[in-house]
């Protein structure tokens, strides 16, 4: 009876030991991830293809140890994430690292809170300008490079500053984080990016009908006021474009509101139709504007006397520029320039004229008015920018936030355009008549401008990531509909040389991990303890001979047969 119980007891003992060993391996496997330090929202560098060539960050997932700029010379960073505050960033170092294609596990740039549209920033002018210039240079470098590792942006806060301080301390002591030494590990468990299939663009058109007298069979002339509303920047989830072109959108909405007051009364309704266009695809050669214009019937297109495109007018500089494609001698160009110049003098503004011919064979479109000019419609762009921007630049980058836009400048820009249009429509050119005088019922409303500027400064608007029914697009349509007689929406597919990829934001988990040496030592100690425990249990239940027999080689078949 005693012998029959031994195998059952041993079996139970072995099952218990197997459970303990399984638990041990689970604990050891979790040693690396047992001490979570923090978690943060991060925003990935844009990934896109242009004419088949890859640009931006080509990967999204991250699982590497972190290091600061104080890493030892010659160290291998192929499995390391560099975390660098913008304030400490050496643009020459980053440019050389990217151009020489040095291996890197990942790159995390910490942006100061002054740039965050969530916090509202502060009023340190010198600090803001310094950060703006540095970030503009970094952004230009990143969006035009092919980077074979994840690149993310995050905003500084107390938690991440504490983590960074620890990382710097270890690096300065010559103990950078590795699998051997331990340290901080950055983990972003996300799927690899996929192409955005058939990205859409939505154009919003508003129409204010002019006063037509009885028996007049001729079509009224039309003036168009246009602004592109979408953005492009190094991080799509942060590209709010407060100035480019949030200021232009706000100005267009306020101008439509002012003229809706005039046109609501037949006695003050002008003999011009007013066409308002909020267009998409601006950063991509104004692809949306092109499709919108080509949807016009010939009568409408021929009725347009001229179009004024609004682009980045939120700077407090006392000079704005009128960019045109037709020669300055053109009658409508002279009319536009003289009308704006006369009002500008009253506002203590200076308006300059920039003429740039267009090349029909070149697909590059630098200004929105050039799409009008290609269809032989007279147009001009009003902007604070004196120089033609390069492709994908000055389109609402990381530095283009609420803190860099001046409400007073937008109010002044609205007065400039609205007064010059009204004087032309009502035949008051050359007269010092203020139709939209301050303190009148037709005065420009700074509160309205401020409220919409706040909304735009918190809304990323990169076209490939805006759906047809995006709440922001619907809000724009609803707002414009409140000021005009008729609103139409046009959905188009973004076509051309660009392909975009998703995964624009993620959650970064930061773990404080132990070294592999510690893990191995822990495993050795626990393993030794279990072996001793196992041996003790076998000896006490079955004897030393049974323990030794467990490690003996079983007899061969020939020996058994004999």
CATH superfamily of the largest domain: Zn peptidases
Question: Class of the largest domain, according to the CATH hierarchy?
Answer: Alpha Beta
For the record, the count of structural domains works out to 3
Mean pLDDT: 87
Q: What fraction of the residues are assigned to beta strands by DSSP?
A: 15-25%
Organism: Gossypium darwinii (Darwin's cotton)
Protein name: Nicalin
GO cellular component, one term: endoplasmic reticulum membrane
Transmembrane segments: 520-544
Structure notes:
Keywords: Endoplasmic reticulum, Glycoprotein, Membrane, Signal, Transmembrane, Transmembrane helix. It comes from Gossypium darwinii. It is a single-pass membrane protein. InterPro entries: EF_Hand_1_Ca_BS (IPR018247), Nicalin (IPR016574). The chain has 562 residues and is of the alpha/beta class. The protein folds into three domains: 35-195 and 504-513, Glucose Oxidase, domain 1 (3-Layer(bba) Sandwich); 200-493, Zn peptidases (Aminopeptidase, 3-Layer(aba) Sandwich), CATH 3.40.630; 521-550. The chain has helices spanning 2-29, 91-99, 125-143, 158-172, 246-263, 287-294, 298-303, 331-346, 369-374, 407-425, 446-456, 471-481, 516-542, 544-550, 557-561, and strands spanning 36-44, 47-50, 53-57, 62-67, 80-85, 106-111, 146-147, 151-155, 183-188, 200-208, 222-228, 273-279, 304-311, 319-324, 350-355, 379-383, 486-493, 498-500, 505-513.
């Amino acid at each position: 009876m005693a012998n029959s119980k031994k195998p059952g007891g041993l079996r139970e003992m072995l099952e218990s030991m197997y459970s303990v060993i399984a638990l041990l391996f689970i604990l050891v496997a979790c040693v690396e991830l047992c001490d979570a330090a923090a978690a943060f929202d991060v925003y990935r560098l844009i990934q896109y293809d242009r004419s088949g060539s890859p640009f931006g960050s080509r990967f999204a997932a991250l699982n590497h140890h972190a290091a600061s700029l104080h890493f030892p010379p010659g160290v291998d960073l192929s499995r390391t994430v560099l975390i660098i505050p913008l304030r400490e960033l050496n643009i020459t170092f980053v440019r050389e690292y990217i151009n020489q294609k040095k291996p890197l596990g990942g790159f995390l740039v910490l942006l100061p809170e002054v740039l965050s549209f969530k916090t509202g920033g502060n009023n340190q002018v010198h600090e803001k300008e310094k950060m703006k210039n540095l970030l503009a240079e970094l952004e230009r470098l990143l969006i035009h490079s092919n980077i074979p590792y994840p690149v993310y942006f995050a905003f500084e806060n107390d938690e991440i500053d504490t983590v960074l301080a620890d990382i710097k301390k270890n690096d300065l002591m010559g103990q950078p984080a590795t699998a051997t030494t331990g340290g901080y590990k950055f983990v972003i468990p996300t799927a690899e990016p996929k192409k955005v299939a058939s990205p859409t663009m939505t154009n919003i058109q508003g129409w204010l009908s002019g006063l037509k007298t009885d028996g007049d069979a001729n079509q009224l002339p039309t003036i168009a006021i246009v602004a592109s509303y979408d953005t492009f920047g190094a991080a799509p989830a942060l590209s709010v474009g407060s100035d480019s072109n949030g200021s232009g959108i706000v100005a267009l909405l306020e101008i439509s509101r002012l003229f809706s007051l005039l046109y609501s009364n037949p006695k003050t309704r002008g003999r011009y139709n007013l066409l308002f266009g909020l267009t998409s695809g601006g950063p991509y050669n104004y692809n949306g504007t092109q499709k919108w214009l080509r949807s016009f019937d010939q009568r409408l297109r021929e009725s347009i006397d001229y179009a004024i495109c609004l682009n980045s007018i939120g700077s407090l500089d006392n000079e704005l520029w009128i960019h045109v494609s037709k020669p300055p001698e053109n009658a409508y160009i002279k009319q536009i320039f003289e009308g704006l110049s006369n009002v500008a003098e009253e506002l203590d503004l200076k308006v300059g004229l920039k003429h740039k011919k267009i090349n029909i064979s070149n697909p590059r479109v630098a200004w929105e008015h050039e799409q009008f000019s290609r269809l032989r419609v007279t147009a001009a762009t009003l902007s604070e920018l004196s120089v033609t921007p390069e492709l994908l630049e000055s389109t609402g980058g990381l530095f283009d936030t609420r803190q860099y836009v001046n409400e007073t400048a937008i109010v002044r820009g609205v007065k400039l355009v609205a007064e010059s249009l009204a004087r032309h429509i009502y035949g008051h050119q050359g007269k010092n008549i203020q139709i939209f005088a301050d303190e009148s019922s037709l005065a420009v409303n700074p509160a309205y401008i401020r409220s919409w500027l706040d909304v735009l400064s918190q809304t990323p608007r990169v076209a490939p990531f805006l759906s047809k029914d995006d709440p922001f697009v619907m809000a724009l349509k609803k707002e414009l509909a409140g000021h005009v007689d008729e609103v139409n929406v046009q959905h188009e597919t973004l076509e051309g040389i660009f392909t975009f990829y998703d995964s624009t934001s993620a959650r970064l988990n930061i773990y404080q991990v132990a070294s592999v040496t510690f893990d191995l030592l822990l495993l050795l100690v626990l393993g030794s303890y279990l072996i001793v425990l196992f041996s003790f249990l076998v000896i006490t239940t079955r004897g030393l001979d049974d323990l030794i027999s467990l490690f003996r080689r079983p007899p061969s078949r020939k020996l058994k047969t004999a």
